[in-house]
Write a structure and sequence with these properties.
Helix content is about 50%, strand content about 15%. By secondary structure, the protein is of the alpha+beta class. A 5-stranded antiparallel beta sheet has the order 4-3-2-1-5, with helices on one face. The two termini are about 30 Å apart. Strand 3 and strand 4 form a beta hairpin.
Length: about 240
């Protein structure tokens, strides 16, 4: 690999995740801004801060600032509401409210499936039980092991219910039921296991997360290799 290709690849490894993260944040911001009603904060309220004749495009700047403040207000209200609901769920009233919501959602045929699947996914991702996020290795057949995650569920015949994600897209996978003796517990956290799955096996948790944990690249000098070949050919002659 030539020098400029190696430098470009190294820079892309550093900048790629940053650009993808910024794009996702910009995409989420656009969704929230599009769903935020203008009645929360009217742009005309900011007229004393940005007068009409202050500079060219003052109206557009005032509207963009008002949109940003509306997004901040919505996110703040959402965070406060989420924390309040989480605190309420620890009380008796919260448990009663949750049962009422579950009962109402399960009465609607179409909504029942979506509601229960979404609730189970949220409990799996954000639940406090460690068993919901325990990575394991499963021997699918002789000599082959695959990374799976416990769901904290068991079947009637005491089999473990696991989620076996595909790589590198972990949003799809298989729900499997296996015997406990076929499961190998892993001494690692969920982030390390997900890194290995998301990176298609190139990200090894045992190597660490620093610079030493990167993928080694063997650099071959093509000119030197060509010279060695010519020397060997001359020696054969």
């Amino acid at each position: 690999m030539t020098s400029w290709k190696r430098d470009f690849a190294s820079g892309l490894i550093v900048l790629g995740p940053i650009l993808v993260s910024l794009y996702i944040l910009f995409w989420l911001y656009g969704i929230i801004a599009g769903m935020t009603p203008g009645v929360i904060l009217d742009a005309d309220v900011l007229t004393p801060l940005i007068p009409d004749g202050a500079f060219e495009g003052a109206d557009q700047t005032r509207e963009q600032l008002a949109q940003f403040l509306r997004v901040v207000v919505v996110l703040t209200v959402f965070i406060i509401l989420t924390l309040s609901m989480g605190y309420l769920m620890r009380t008796t009233v919260g448990g009663l409210l949750e049962r009422i919501l579950d009962n109402l959602a399960n009465r609607v045929p179409g909504l029942r499936v979506v509601y229960n699947a979404s609730k189970m996914a949220a409990e799996t991702a954000f639940g406090e039980q460690d068993s919901l996020q325990t990575p394991v290795k499963l021997e699918t057949w002789d000599g082959l092991r695959m990374t799976a995650f416990k769901t904290g569920r068991t079947t009637d015949d005491d089999r473990e219910v696991l989620f076996l994600p595909t790589s590198p897209n972990i949003t799809t996978g298989f729900v499997i039921e296996v015997e406990s003796d076929r499961i190998t517990e892993l001494d690692e956290d969920v982030e390390d296991a997900l890194t290995r799955v998301l990176s298609a096996g190139f990200g090894d948790a045992d190597r660490g997360r620093g610079l030493e944990g990167g993928i080694s690249i063997d650099v071959i000098d093509e000119r030197a290799a060509t010279g060695d070949e010519k020397k060997r050919e001359a020696g054969d002659d």
